[in-house]
Amino acid sequence: MPRRPTRVVPTVLLAEQLPAGSWLNWLADRLTAAGREVRLCPAGAELDPGAWRDELIRTMVGLPDDDFDLVAHSAGCLLWLHHAALTDAAEPPAELPRPARVALIAPPAASAAPPGLEAFYPVPLQIDAVRRGAEGTVLVGSDGDPRCPAGVAAEYGTPLKMATTVVPGAGGFTAADGYAEWPAVLDWCGRANLAFIA
Fold first, then answer.
1. Which of 71, 92, 104, 155 sits between 20 and 30 A of 137, alpha carbons compared?
2. Number of C-beta neighbours around residue 55 at 10 A
3. Can you tell me the distance from the alpha carbon of 31 to that of 116, in angstroms, rounded to the nearest whole number?
4. Domains in the chain: how many in total?
5. Residue pair 129/171 in contact by the 8 Å Cβ criterion
């Protein structure tokens, strides 16, 4: 049983949607109950990358640099990769707070992404930008995600030279896949190290 979170830094939840009954809302409730500040950043109805990134920037304003976590799910992972690349390319670099840790969970592949995500592709898989975008980033996926049939390691882990945690049989980590609650992600949020223990 994962221990109660002891890390007290703020957490940003970046996801396409934050539906009732999902682990994202469950996680927000658990972190809030543990005294953590939680900021939610769902996409708008149009799934516009530019508008969503603007909302992400507004969400992060005022957060302590290198002292907050960001958990991204599905299209939220794509947005984070775009954000990291754009921020890294800014001249001068954008004055935005940088997360201490980022968890990218179940990013969809272009070959199997659902309608509405076309504007997010191609995804910038820039190793240095991702490394500079946070103190540490972890990639988590399933061996049976219909949105990433080739596997998260092949699609994202190898191009980004990033170790990948693969959770067997987890699908896309949705409530329909049995992820209304997810103790492992709560445990990750409660620890200071980067490793994701499935």
1. 92
2. 17
3. 31
4. 1
5. no
- What strands, in cross-sheet order, belong to the sheet with 164-167? 38-42, 11-15, 69-73, 101-105, 136-142, 164-167
pLDDT (tens digit per residue) in 108-149: 999 998 889 999 999 999 999 999 999 999 999 999 899 999
DSSP H or E stretch at residue 138: strand 136-142
Q: Are 138 and 195 in contact (CB under 8 A)?
A: yes
Mean pLDDT computed over every residue of the chain? 94
Q: Is residue 60 classed as helix, strand or coil in its secondary structure? A: helix
Both structure tokens of 197: 């223990």
| 42 and 15 Cβ atoms separated by less than 8 Å | yes
Domain holding 154: CATH number?
A: 3.40.50.1820
Cis peptide before 168 (omega within 30 of 0): no
Whether 196 is in a domain gets the answer no
State the residue range of the domain holding 116: 11-190
As a dihedral over the C-alpha atoms of residue 34, residue 39, residue 45, residue 46, rounded to 10 degrees, the angle is: -140
Least confident of 49-53, 77-81, 90-94, 103-107: 90-94
What are 22's two structure tokens?
């999902």
Asked if residue 71 belongs to a domain, the reply is yes
Check residue 3 and give its pLDDT. 53
How long, in residues, is the chain?
198
Burial of 29 (0-12, 13-18, 19+ CB in 10 A): exposed
